[in-house]
Design a protein that fits this description.
The chain is mostly beta strands and about 475 residues long. It is about 5% helix and about 35% strand. The chain has two helices and 35 strands. The strands form ten sheets. Strands 1, 2, 4, 5, 6, 9, 12 and 14 form an eight-stranded antiparallel β-sheet that branches. Strands 3-7-13-10-11 form a five-stranded antiparallel β-sheet, with no helix packed on it. Strands 32-31-33-34-35 form a five-stranded antiparallel β-sheet, with no helix packed on it.
């Protein structure tokens, strides 16, 4: 064990020393004894902060920093070198521990290769950079762990005030094949990955083991099984051995959930266990759409209703037969094609009844006969007096013209006198004028009708016009009976 003088002198050259050093990396254990009654937790301060005490995380001793943690009597810390380790290098000191207290504050030091079995190195002083040569204790293994325990509570900040823990080139073995874990598992469906993802030590190592190719592992190619791969790192110092660490990977035929139906539009080629996520193209080409078998559609046929898609995505509806005439008393609002079943209210209000226009009815008038329903459902009969008497033997009056009062029609000015010649051709029509006749000589007959009595008519004649010198006839014609 060597001391290099007071701390102030060491600060002048520590820049060179620290620039070439490898610091402790991990705080693996810490124990605060409570021997300083003023504190119930670790405390410390800033290197140039004088006697000011503050609560301090003991991990400040890691790396290169400007803070320290105090170790009063019985308090301890254990640190680990992760990406390097220390060996007994020939002709130089190997381990350095800086204490910033001005007083002679003491601590015990232990070293270990595995963090389990520790070798006592000795007691170190405060206020100096303690340089430890592993040859002093004939230590021939590696130093990966260092434990420091305070032995007193002296100084203005009571306890051993540790700042840094490090080694120098020549004593640092840097071959560290650190892996983040010792085992892992994959599925046969997982893609290829680099084993280098597990490395947090030196990046310049070499992978070995059956199943890897240049440090790349492909579970899909390897299949189920357990595979071990080793990462080996050579140390640049001949005195230092290489380092190797292994990782065991288990590849299993895992349940990969997804859609396993290749006809689905959400098919997952990597899945081997169906999770109900399969969806399919609907009848309009949308993945997972709603236009599927049984969904409503439009077949563009006005004669169908309830159009739906079938299993082949055909759209069809149902033809509903029935009466489609809304004025019918048997009209069916849901019918799409008329089946001839339409019935209508008859003149008596009966749906499909026989009381239609032209059928017999009773107008409740005893002066009419042959009562029938008209187009507007009124019931009309023929007045009895219209058809009495001789219809073809009525005489003319003395002047030879027709006398309307000799007809059987009431004289109301609505009578129509239609003159026919021998060829049954209409030659003259007079309305409400009973004394007029054609002005051409010849034989005629006259049909008398009245629009108020459409059923019957009277035939007058034959009549002969012999002269055209009468006093009252049309154009002076004189009509004579034959």
């Amino acid at each position: 064990m060597k001391n290099t003088g007071l701390f102030l002198l060491l600060l002048m050259c520590c820049g060179v020393l620290q620039a070439q050093s490898e610091f402790a990396d991990v705080l693996v254990d810490s124990n605060y004894s409570g021997s300083n009654p003023d504190w119930d937790e670790f405390y410390g301060g800033e290197v140039n902060g004088g006697c000011d005490e503050v609560a301090t995380d003991p991990s400040v001793v890691l790396g290169d920093n400007d803070f320290f943690v105090s170790l009063p009597t019985g308090s301890s810390i254990t640190v680990q070198f992760v990406d390097n380790c220390l060996v007994d290098a020939p002709g130089q000191t190997d381990l350095f521990l800086e204490e910033v207290g001005a007083s002679s504050e003491l601590a015990d030091v232990w070293v270990s290769d595995d963090g389990i079995d520790f070798t006592y190195f000795g007691m170190i002083d405060g206020g100096v950079v303690n340089e430890l040569d592993l040859a002093d204790i004939n230590y021939d293994s590696f130093v990966k762990y260092v434990r420091i325990e305070g032995l007193d509570a002296g100084g203005c900040v009571p306890g051993f005030d540790i700042v840094r823990i490090y080694g120098l080139p020549g004593s640092n073995c840097e071959a560290f094949a650190g892996l983040s874990q010792e085992a892992d598992s994959y599925c046969t469906t997982d893609g290829a990955f680099p084993l280098q993802d597990y490395v947090f030590g030196s990046p310049n190592g070499v992978w070995s083991g059956a199943g890897q190719n240049g440090g790349i592992v492909n579970p899909q190619e390897l299949g189920e099984g357990t595979y071990t791969f080793t990462y080996t790192v050579e140390d640049p110092l001949p005195i230092c051995p290489g380092d190797a660490q292994s990782i065991t990977l288990t590849i299993e035929d895992c349940a990969v959930f997804g859609c396993i139906d290749p006809t689905s539009c959400t098919f997952d080629a990597l899945a081997n266990t169906d999770d109900g996520s399969c969806q399919y193209l609907d009848c309009t080409g949308i993945c997972g759409g709603a236009n599927v078998e049984g969904a409503a559609c439009d077949d563009n046929d006005a004669t169908t209703v309830n159009d739906i898609y079938d299993a082949d995505c055909g759209c069809s509806g149902v033809i509903v037969l029935g009466c489609i005439d809304p004025v019918s008393c048997t009209f069916e609002p849901g019918a799409t094609v008329d089946d001839g079943s339409c019935l209508y209210l008859d003149c008596e209000g009966t749906c499909g009844g026989a009381a239609l226009a032209g059928t017999v009815c009773d107008d409740n008038d005893d002066q009419t006969i042959e009562d029938v329903y008209q187009a507007d459902c009124s019931c009309l009969g023929v007045p009895i007096f219209q058809c009495d008497g001789e219809l073809d033997t009525l005489p003319l009056n003395r002047q030879g013209s027709l006398c309307a009062d000799l007809t059987e029609f009431p004289i109301d000015g609505n009578e129509v006198y239609t003159w026919y010649n021998e060829n049954d051709e209409v030659v003259a029509v007079f309305t409400g004028i009973q004394y007029y006749a054609p002005s051409v000589l010849g034989a005629y007959y006259v049909v008398v009708t009245d629009p108020d009595y459409p059923i019957c008519s009277q035939v007058l004649g034959p009549r002969t016009i012999e002269t055209i010198d009468g006093c009252c006839e049309l154009d002076g014609a004189t009509l004579d009976d034959e």
